[in-house]
UniProtKB/TrEMBL annotation:
Pfam families: FAD-oxidase_C, FAD_binding_4. Keywords: FAD, Flavoprotein. This is FAD-binding oxidoreductase. Belongs to the FAD-binding oxidoreductase/transferase type 4 family. InterPro entries: FAD-bd_oxidored_4_C, FAD-bd_PCMH, FAD-bd_PCMH-like_sf, FAD-bd_PCMH_sub1, FAD-bd_PCMH_sub2, FAD-linked_Oxase-like_C, FAD-oxidored/transferase_4, Oxid_FAD_bind_N. The keyword Transit peptide does not apply. The keyword Flavoprotein applies.
Amino acid sequence: MTTFLDLCRSAIGADYVVTDDADMASYLIDWRRRFSGNALAVVKPANTEEVAAIVRLCNQFRVPVVPQGGNTGLVLGSVPDDSGTAIVMSLVRLNRIRAIDTVNNTMTAEAGCILENIQNAAAEAARLFPLSLAAEGSCTIGGNLATNAGGTGVLRYGNARELCLGLEVVTPQGEIWSSLRGLRKDNTGYDLRDLFIGAEGTLGIITAAVLKLFPQPKAQLTALAAMQTPEDALRLLTMTQNHCGAGLTGFELMSDFCLQLVSKHYPQMRPPFAQDHAQYVLLELSDNESEEHAVALLEAFIGDALEAGIIQDAIVAASIAQSKALWNLREHIPLAQAEEGKNIKHDISVPISSIGQFIQSTDVQLQQQFPGCRMVTFGHLGDGNLHYNVSPPAGDSADAFIAQQAAVNRVVHDSANRYGGSISAEHGVGALKRKEIRDYKSAVEMALMQSIKQAIDPLNLMNPGKVV
């Protein structure tokens, strides 16, 4: 492979073809540090033309390509296998915001742009880019689109797919396809944009995108409500939507055990109530009229929910600092889980109306098969996406419990499927769930996916071993 690597160095510069084991290490290990692969090299092109040049060389020498953004994924989608035959293509140098159009309400950004930087650039232009997730300080928009990321704003704004109007993609043959026109209507054939979004780099490499922007809301209010059951949370969701309509932008469910973990490992963070409650909902209301209007709406439906017995208590953030404190409770749940020790993560979705039944029945099944296991249940109730994670019984060996992961997964995923759900809502499939999805997708669906992969990437060089 010396000739291949030399040609790569000629194409993008020797400094950007990394082969030293120590220098490559951070690109080869997954975010949870559970798996480490090997690679021929890590290459770091600076622009779309350099990406295309490297892909053409990979075609010539039959070298697989693993595209990588911020490497924050949870399903082994952005790391190579252990064969050492692939290159990792890091897109972090493609980090320019090419244009912002405040009349068209669009931003054109390269794939390596950090999500938080995109949010900030939109804010500087008095606009909102609403995609928001815990890894926004390090994940990239290319990875967000490749996995069709969700986050906390899906209820109002949709997944990453709904926030993208056009793409620039390097195909498996090293050609450049661009639809960076910012059109909201273009009914001229197959929607190739939607084909590449969510494909996890298996059909081509996203190098840039046109993103939707929105007017900055006049007010954003945050409230934390306490209740007894997930069914109460669903009743609150319906009531809030009836009161606020599209103004409801976030609706996050958190169990008491989730916040117990946060308080245990981050003692400065505690729910602001005098007593504990079984379930909590963190909700966010955005208003384009005024703060006074937003406050009146919020106070009205909280009052109605208290009177109806749907919720037992509630607090409305009176400042930005209080709002951040409430969101910190939600965002520190995964961090607290990591501090608690190894656990088995799930990213499932079911129809919103079935969430209460799913939680109740799945909790029972897991306790029957794995007595004492602890469910860490939280997520985006407003769009039906739960992070239904399972920790070992207190005091038990984490490694022994993790050894039963396949059996735990089977209970959770069978239950999600029984309720008409999905085993991957926003994290993707990657290598982690590649075999498992065959248990839940029809033969027709799998055959169609494999046909698309074969037609677009016949040499199977684009992120092989992932998704299909």
